[in-house]
Fold each of these.
Amino acid sequence: MKNYMISWKTIESALKDIQINNSLFVVSHARNPFEILVSVILSQNTNDKNAIKALNKLKKHLKKITPEIIIKCKEKFLEDCIRPSGMQKEKTKTIIRAAKAFVDIGGEEAFLKLDPNAAREFLLGIKGIGKKTADVVLMVTHKADVFPVDTHIRRITQRLGIVHSGNYDEISAVWKKIVPKDLYYTYHKKLIEFGRRVCRARNPLCELCALRDLCRYYQKMRNTIEELQEKCSTISKVLR
Ligand code: SF4
């Protein structure tokens, strides 16, 4: 099956009623750059609800999450704080590695002074930080021209048939072509909300979706249903 392009007008009109509830995004609960990075690490392999719980627990104990404060914390204490986000052992190690890397370059101020490419390279050099985590951080801290791809965006893109592979760079590049640059952050969040409420992982609400006439997944499902209906009708005629 071939990839195809979808127009900006179509996406804009299909998502026009999707409201963004910022309080449901863990990043909105973080303030300083390192806190933003920690919030995105906490959201890896879980939903934002659990990540928010873990972030708030950590903030309650530390008041502010900075690299300098984190490197003084005991690993076990950090693991206990972030337990609500799951994979606390791996995430604690990543947070500590990130804190050390920030301190090594001169702290959060020095990080903010890096240009977006250098900042991305720096983040990707920390074990446990992948492209999605780096791009979400840079979108907020550096207003970088990146389009982060999370699990919702990957699923929607593949279902629509715009990109069939799950390749991060390919999916990100296609959304960068569709969405105007100044709206990357807004539409990154809108697509996530759309994935949470309409194009859900299980039982997507295709009948309510304004993209269904273009959607490869919907067309496939509809063809399967029509084929089944045809088979049932043939069987019932034979049995009559
Ligand atoms: S038609 Fe269904 S599968 Fe396709 S984008 Fe809409 S909700 Fe998702």
Amino acid sequence: MPELAATPPVIAQAAHNAQPYDYRRFVAKIVDVYDSPLIRAYCKARFTIININILQMLSLCLRGKKRILDVGCGFGLFGCYFSSMYPEIEYCGYDLNARRVREANLAAERLGLRNARFNVGDARDLAIDEQYDAIMMVDLLHHIDDTAKSTLLGICASHLAADGRLIIKDVTTRPFFKIAFTWALDVVMTKSFDMWYWNEKRFYQKLDRHFDRIEMYPITDWLPYPHVIYLCENLADRDSDAMEPGATDRR
Ligand SMILES: C[S@@+](CC[C@H](N)C(=O)[O-])C[C@H]1O[C@@H](n2cnc3c(N)ncnc32)[C@H](O)[C@@H]1O
């Protein structure tokens, strides 16, 4: 982990969940370290779209995992959130956009986070050597084409520890009004019409090649995004009959 410049940390202590924590203030502290009003507005929007319920689901997916890779980390918003919440983790983010990566590292430095670092990298050609306990991708996959997406899933699977987890948050293709809204927003944000959305069936087919167990959690809220979280793992004891509720098993 590279040494960061000594800046007075904005978040000196983790927001422990032993007692209810002030989520809004915690998130506001993260958003406030970004200089640009535009980036702050974007970050507020992301914390609304990926709301506290989704973040807490992702937190549970990450439970007990130490070395975490975030592909398509953007401005490092959720990397800063998880690294602040869980000082014991080692968080490494990659994004194609060098400016976003710069802002992410600056945000981590200002927050006093020594357990988060962000690098420039292309998910279509991800060169990583390390093994990770969890790999997450939040709204990345629909930005890369189907062939690259399939390759990336294979790379992720091969860089996970035996008890590692792949955690994907992406959008599915129904209902129509939600995916139409999501598409329009993606076009505006990326200034491109190139989006490759997969529905749950497609994700399942591709993930099934690499993982014993794939859990899918569609998330319904008032916002027009057809969110789904996929939690993928390999079973340490493949002979075990134990299955958790909600899981599909390819045995
Ligand atoms: C919708 S944003 C999500 C960012 C972040 N995960 C979040 O949830 O706030 C998608 C991100 O994927 C990044 N991205 C798009 N194509 C990529 C690629 N080929 N390799 C790495 N990152 C990519 C974009 O730069 C952008 O930051």
Amino acid sequence: MNVAFIGAHPDDEMFCLGTLLLCRRRGDRLFLICATNGDKGISDDPDFPHAECARLRDREMREVARAIDAEYQCLGEPDEALYDTWDNRLKMIEAIRHTQADLLFTHFSQDYNLDHSTTSALVFQGALLSQIASVRTEKPGPAACAADLLCGPRPGIWLRGDSFRGD
Ligand SMILES: [Zn+2]
């Protein structure tokens, strides 16, 4: 099974790292996706260069991904300035299509942080639209709409198909 965590910031994977490790243990293929580059993440130093912060956090995320044998991708939007735009929806759709994820984890839709709730909206919309072939990205969508895209038992989880066994 392909399992993806899509978060707003580098380090948000910590919200479900234990679950991801359990998935990894049973042989699932893992993907980590960040919507933003986390360039405001050094919050106690107003003089820390944003570009340097983004490089540092990218390096940290790549180390996390390597440690859990996951594929990592950053959509590159600026930290604390993520918006639900058509361009960002297309980026998210492309990322989701690339993972061919059977199971997606993301933030709760009513999260306290606007980047988190915007990421949640982009993931939910992206999961839906990634199944629609007429929504074109570099990686083509399926030939027909999949009728088996289901909302999970609580906000923040999408299941695709009937491959999820819950074990
Ligand atoms: Zn975050």
Amino acid sequence: MDARADKLIHSAAFKPRPKGRGKKAPRSVSILSKPRPKGRGVEGLIKNWQKRNILGLYCRNKEEAIDKLLEIIPPSATIGISGSVTLDQLGIARRLEARGNFIFNQYKPGLSPQESLELRRQGAQADYYLTSSNGISEKGELVFFSGFGQRICGIASAKNVIVVAGMNKLTPNLEAALKRAREYATPLNCKRLNWNTPCFKDGICRKEICLFPEYRRMCCQILVIEAEVAPDRLKVILVGESMGF
Ligand code: SF4
């Protein structure tokens, strides 16, 4: 992780806070903030993905990532897209639509909940499904948390899947990736989307009480990708910047 990405993590507007006053920040945050050697780490990760039948591609910045996506995805392909701050920051849906790709866009203004759900379902069957990960281990495992499960469905069933992730998503191991997703990314997403969860107010996960009807739990389904069977189906574009949560 380079110094700039590390600085961006520290400047996040909302961070999970410890339960008691004076306690140290959650371990996941300190693990994430540790600077690590950029070159060797990225090369090692891409090699680890190779062994898992996942194609890893490194882009130095957002602009390169956009170019790479436009290069990989044919203009005639249909696209499913998951809710993702990373993808929003790239503005990739707009770019793809502008050149003629059809996007099953569940976020189009004016859609009813039923229409939005139907587009999510169709998007999961698209030629390409775009998403981001909540945590990535150095061995290459990819962690995804989901509320409705459509993202998990898209990743599992779309003909091609491209995961775009900033360097801030890297963690030392699977345990830390899961911890990051639960204790860092999800509270930020609850805050962003105004979800009624225990972590909404203070950023602390209390999963034991995060149940219906008192709360509307966000992290309901979890997917861990260890490897991919179909050649060329799963690609990860790793961006040398901090992106999303
Ligand atoms: S289980 Fe509930 S409190 Fe914990 S991170 Fe998920 S949504 Fe937040």
